Amino acid sequence: MTYYIKYQENGKIKTKVLEEEQYHKKNLPNNIIEIKKKNITNQSLFTQNKRISNKELINSLYELNLMLEANLLLDDALEILIENTKKDNIKEFFRKLKFAFSNYLDVNKSLKEFKVDFLVKSLFKITQDNGNIKENISILYEILNEEYETRKELKKVFAYPFILLISFFLALYAIFKVVVPKFEYMFTQNDIPLSFATKVLFQLKYFFENYSLIFLVLFSFFIFLIYIMYKNNLKVRYFIQKFIFLKIPILSAIYRYQQFYRYFTVINSLLNSKYEFYETLNKSKSLISNKYFLDRITKIDNLLKSGKSISYSFSKVEIFDDIVLNIIKTAEKTNSLTKVSFDIKNIYKKRFTEKVKFFSLFIEPAFFILIMGLIIWIVLAIFVPLWSMSDILKV
């Protein structure tokens, strides 16, 4: 938010421009005639938000968490963090955060210019509302750090197969450009009978030579179109996020368990802060970025408002398995939702970890099988006609 202040000084009309932080600090001139505020939301297509590195943010949250554990006030802890931080984006991020907390401004609006994990802004907003600062900062650090370590492990798993796959396709490019044309000429000149694998190879070579550029342009345009529709059309975004949430083998389960783990971690934190379950459910919706998951939780909220039980409401959305539903049903009867939310959080954390490990074990052999299959296909496509040629020459 920018403020344009028109004021009179020495008989002349002047204009002063103040940013929101300066304006709230009352850095105002005398003899004000008019104040106009302008919210600059229209950015150009190439304007980007200030990106905050996950690693830098996690390190800063670790320091902040330590200071809060030592019973420092949030303002004092943030001030120390700002003074000791060297990165400009991180420094500005925490300066804006401190200003928002100190002046009771909306955290989401204050941090709008920064590109960070959706959970970060949402959890800071909940912290601002419920005041449970120490526990929420600790939870935020724990979740982000675990997910960062998981991403590092997945990158290690993907690194070798990915390099191998890139090398293979570069070799395939060389084969299509140099090797296959010579064999095609030799086979056609000698009227050699071609196997199915050889015919497919020659067809791919023909496609590669004549249509690969067109295919790449059309494919790039299609991806760009999907991206634009995803950004601007809520129905498309809902459909894609539902597909990601439910339909992709293995990856959907990893993503789903991650979302559930985040969700029940915050539910447990709010219940520990003595919030009623209905209020907790409503507040926690702000943490959900996936539109399909948000729609399911909103349905639970609506069922609870209409007088349905908690266990019934959770069962009707059809995204939670029987074990979790039975635990919720037991907790509702014994009035132990706070304890049970902690148990459910741990269940989904364990499932998330197990799925990631399974995927790590699965992906490398899958890449090797794929590459091995492609190599066998090319070998058969080249050598089967050669064997036929040798039989003809013997005759």
Automatic annotation (TrEMBL):
Domain spans labelled Type II secretion system protein GspF: 63-181, 266-385
Keywords (A to Z) from UniProt: Cell membrane, Membrane, Transmembrane, Transmembrane helix
Residues passing through the membrane, by range: 157-176, 211-230, 358-387
Keyword Transcription listed: no
Membrane topology note: Multi-pass membrane protein
Domain of life: Bacteria
InterPro entries: GspF/PilC (IPR003004), T2SS_GspF_dom (IPR018076), T2SS_GspF_sf (IPR042094)
Localization in the cell: Cell membrane
Residue stretches in coiled coil: none
Gene Ontology CC terms: plasma membrane
Predominant localisation class: membrane
Keyword check for Membrane: yes
Family to which this protein belongs: Belongs to the GSP F family.
Protein name as it appears in the record: Transformation system protein
Organism from which the protein derives: Halarcobacter mediterraneus
